[in-house]
Predict the structure.
Amino acid sequence: MGQFSDIAFFSLLIKKGNLNSAAQEMGVTPPAVSKRLANLEARLGVRLLNRTTRHMNLTPEGDIYLTEGSKVLNDLETLERSIAGSKDKPKGTIRIGATLGFGRKYIAPALSEFARTYKDIEIQLHLTDKPINALEQGIDLFIHFGDLPHTRLTSRILIPNKRILCASPKYLQRNHSPQTPKDLSQHQCIFLRESNETFGTWHLHSGNKHETIKVRGQLTTNDGESATAWALEGHGILMRSIWEVEPYLRSGRLQEVLTDWALPSANISLVLPAKNNMSAAVRALLDFLVESFKESPLHQAKS
């Protein structure tokens, strides 16, 4: 294995162009690099470099060693990838977490299709209305709405999405549509008790303007479908993700309000607790879900 190490060392030395830069890259002293080069030339019985205090140039033998050695390193890398890949077949158990509504409506059907293709992978779907702590709960992959809480998390966007404020025409006819965020405090608002967000507080922004509004209402819930049903029945203004209410907006059963104002990010992402040592099974599921949702009508929901 020493020969392969020597080829890699020599390739690095040429790439860096001088002993000092190579030493810095390797984390050793320049004399140590010079000694290793001398030992390599002594073992081969030829001079590989003509060097002065400022310059070094390949000898004909050094040029051959670099060119052919690079081919050997590339072949070795290809061989190792091939061998590792043959052992790394998608199999094992994956524990995936999702919210109740989205998980039941979209993730569970997608996993049904995935299971037909990958017979050696066992899926455990965990649906919850509470925030997911992937490490504590042993979750391999989970669905997240909005900005990620930690930058160290690895994620891929599953569906571009946003939140909107909407109400039924019946409610708006009785109460008039709000013209500014402050008007919301005079309206009946339907809101959800979820995540770690401050209960009954809505954050809106338009350009450089930001408004934080404490809303009130007769009806609250921790279930999105119940909240949507109340809005359809005219009980108040609702904040929901576009994927949940877009059909009702199209049909006219709900109308968007305060369209010049935006709410916090709500993109739907697939999140992994860590990027290192991702199993073939998790990678297969990640790629499958991203590809599956490309064809979803949710991608065509207006934004």
